[in-house]
Sequence to fold (408 residues):
Amino acid sequence: MSSKRRSRGSGSIRKRGQALYLRFRPPGQSSQVEQSFPRSEAESMPDYRARAEAALVALTQGLLTRTRTAPTARTLQELADSYLFSLRNEIKPRTYESYDTTIRVYILPELAGKKVSRLTAEDIRAFQHRLLDKQVAGNKRIAVSTARLAMSSLHDMVNYAMDGQDNRESWGISFDPWPRRRLRWPDDRQRPAPHTYPPYTIDETRAFIAATPEQIRPHILCAILLMLRDGELRAMRWKHLDEDNGLYFVHETQSRKHGFTSTKTPSSQAAVPVPEILLEELRAHRTRQAEMKLRKGQKWQEHGLVFTTSKGTPLIYNWYGVGPKHVIATEASVRPVSFHTLRKTGASLLESLGVSRSETQEALRHKRTTVTDGYVSVYMRQRREHIEELARTLVDVPSFPQSSLKVG
Fold:
């Protein structure tokens, strides 16, 4: 160990191996505090020491004049809590939940006890390598896309700690520890394609609706004809239904964790046309609901919802999967599909009638056309008809070039 003698109160610098440490005595404390001073990536020792000298001078002078407080040895766990707290009122609840899950599942198990002031580029690179080796469900290694998301969240946390001089002093960060060289990612471990259900054809949809009991038929028709998301259907209220003009105004969604909240995107809040057939189904459904309300008496909980449990409360989040999904599909002799696929079915059948992609996008209330592109399926029969028509058009052209190849 070696130390450089200084004037009283100016602190000192110690060197251990290739690392430097700042030693100083905060006002009111009898003992000195030793704080590691991380070395930035590819920094020479003279530059490293010069930066440490400057940091120590600024720190000790600030402590003597009481314009600075001594950096605290706060951990990544505390940084994560502070960062998430700052986001709570800035983003939508479901977005916040995804941030919280990523940080607490992938980052904190590895780095929770690490001191923020001691975080280095080597630590970040080592964490990335451990993350890529992490085992997930099915004894498989984590998907690269998930690892990228976790590293992005860690980077956001570091940037939060460095946002302004006050934050830097509070968290004890004297330089940006993020690696200057770009992190490398393997290119052979992409996330597998998610399991999706092809939408029903028009014949399958007819069979499915015909096999649906009358108590559930309004639910299914709202999914297909109004193309509502599951949470939007569970949040449907009678006051948002305009029977005179045949419109339903989508205002909110419902989830099991956050209750009733605003829709997924601002563009999702819109008026959707309700066909007369569905209006008749909804009127019959309201009559059945009124009879149920009378039978339940004081047990009924009024929320003004269109679709409820037998007590008037919101439908459970998996009402379709645990209830009518397989029963109706079996009765209709069709394959069971997810509730979301019913929404896709409505969009695909709409385009099969000649509706443009932009109109389908509006019906789905998507913000971007690229999202709509992933929803709509062009059925094989239609594709074959279009290809056949193209082939006839090409072959029937008088100047169609003849092949010069000789076939044995």
